[in-house]
Design goal:
By secondary structure, the chain is an alpha/beta fold. It contains eight helices and nine strands.
């Protein structure tokens, strides 16, 4: 279904499509035109058609898109049916908040374990997820293939923890440490999340607003 070398801009819009199509499905909407979908998402109809054409033909002339079918197709494109697994490194405030409040399953992931250096946390279970000592990370990765490592460790620990994840066969790193990680290994992807970037962009926009 996928073409090679889809632009990052298109990839970034795919979750928005999935989220909006999910809302439409829950609302009982059966079909929608690219024009209506574009207005709801603040995109042009041609942009939507162009984005989706990167992955195949989904709409019908004079009918538009079947909402549920398109949602399922976008879900497949995003790999939500691949049964990805994830682990969390760092069970501090942010790590705990993700474990207790973020629904990994809604994005097609299973959170299987967490790791920390704090002996008061090791051996416990948070939101049904066991917490292990970080000393056992390497052996865990050897015995349990893992798709993604979520980094919520202190910034100074980001690079060495990322190296251990990569050495253990992890294919993706979701990095919340505020350190800009670059992993130089083919097939491994890093998603650096900087909360301040979004807030500063908002600061600019409200400062420039008339």
């Amino acid at each position: 279904m996928k073409r090679e070398k889809v632009s990052s801009a298109v990839i970034r819009r795919l979750p928005r499509y999935y989220r909006h199509l999910t809302d439409l499905t829950l609302a009982g909407v059966v079909r929608i035109s690219s024009n209506t979908l574009g207005k709801a998402m603040n995109l042009t109809a041609s942009q939507i058609r162009q984005d989706l054409s990167c992955f195949g033909e989904f709409g019908q002339q004079g009918y538009g898109y079947n909402v549920e079918s398109l949602r399922n197709a976008v879900s497949e494109i995003l790999g939500m049916d691949q049964k990805h697994t994830a682990i969390i490194l760092g069970v501090g405030n942010l790590g705990r908040a993700l474990m207790e409040n973020f629904h990994f399953s809604h994005s097609g992931f299973v959170l299987t374990a967490a790791f920390d250096v704090n002996p008061s946390l090791v051996g416990k279970s948070l939101a049904g997820v066991p917490v292990y000592s970080v000393e056992h990370l390497n052996s865990y990765l050897q015995s349990t293939p893992t798709s993604v490592g979520v980094l919520t460790v202190p910034r100074t620990a980001a690079a060495p923890m990322a190296d251990r994840l990569v050495a253990g066969g992890v294919r993706g790193i979701w990095n919340f440490t505020n350190a800009e990680l670059n992993v130089h290994k083919s097939g491994v992807v890093v998603e650096n999340v900087h909360f301040a970037d979004s807030l500063l962009a908002l600061s600019y926009m409200i400062s420039e607003a008339p």
